[in-house]
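During the no-cost extension, the postdoctoral fellow (Dr. R.K.) reprocessed legacy sequence entries with the updated structure-token encoder. One reprocessed record is reproduced below for audit purposes.
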Amino acid sequence: MTKKAVLLVNLGSPDSTEVSDVRRYLKQFLSDPRVIDAPALIRWMILNFTILPRRPYATSAVYKKIWKKEGSPLILTSRELQENIAKNIDIPVELAMTYGHPSIPDAIKKLKAQGIEELFLIPLYPHYAMSSYESAVVAVYDAQKEIAPKIKVTTLQPFYKDTKYIEALVESAKPYLDRGYDHLLFSFHGIPERQLIKTDPSHAHCLKVKDCCNTCSPSHATCYRHQCFETVKAFVEKANIPEGKFSTSFQSRLGRDPWLTPFTDVVLEELPKKDVRNLLVICPAFVSDCLETLEEIAMAGKETFIEAGGKTFDQIPCLNNHPRWIEFLTHKINEWN
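Re-encoded structure tokens follow.
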């Protein structure tokens, strides 16, 4: 019988909040040519002369705001997800991070030692982006070719509008939606516009055709922006959110190049001026709560909104270990297996 296994891959986290660990993590993360997609020399200069001398200190302080006694929230949640899925299936489930620990090479070595012949790779990203989904997939295939070339790898494709995924997302948000609110903001992680253009195989559609995200095109298979909008469209239809009571924005921009707009921090300042007093924010690009949701949205974002005149602000938690999310992933594994 063929020996099979599952590999869950998330972004990663520093090993601790110590500046040295944060610096090491940022160096690995931002050295990825799919994250800072500039020529190697320019990327090296940006990293070593602009980012690494100062940013680790500020990032360390921010991580300390969300860090748990047991460690990184993202790592802890991902391990719990691994354990919960393992309870539902009869094949091994490994966990790896694209950056940091547990590492992808270490996970591949474990799978090889177990005699695994077929692997189902689950990048924990609903949407395709070169800086997240693509980076994870490439890192796994590179490690597999070097360490265990005989293992056959099958990859879960982006599931941004999969019916069961949308149902899990809506079900997880329901307790917050049922409380009542003025507005629901969908805040997705931002990416530079140039990356959207790079992942367009036609090089003639994304950001070039009028209303490109709503104009049918094969480019949508790798278009992060289109896929984010499709998630919103499916969510509001399933949850019966009225037109005019929701909007979409993009967070976490870095550098001076054009990024996807509107920016979340700007939107949070503007919403109170439109008589939005009670706000819900959901972050569907993330399946596990992390620095970008727990600090950037739930802390800094809330402060921005309240100072601008808002009254109540709630960040709807990510799927984390919601039963419907575990059910969705188990279903995908069973389809493959």
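The CA atoms of residues 192 and 259 lie 4 Å apart. Residues 4-158 form a domain with the Rossmann fold fold (CATH 3.40.50.1400). The remaining legacy entries will be reprocessed before the final report is submitted.
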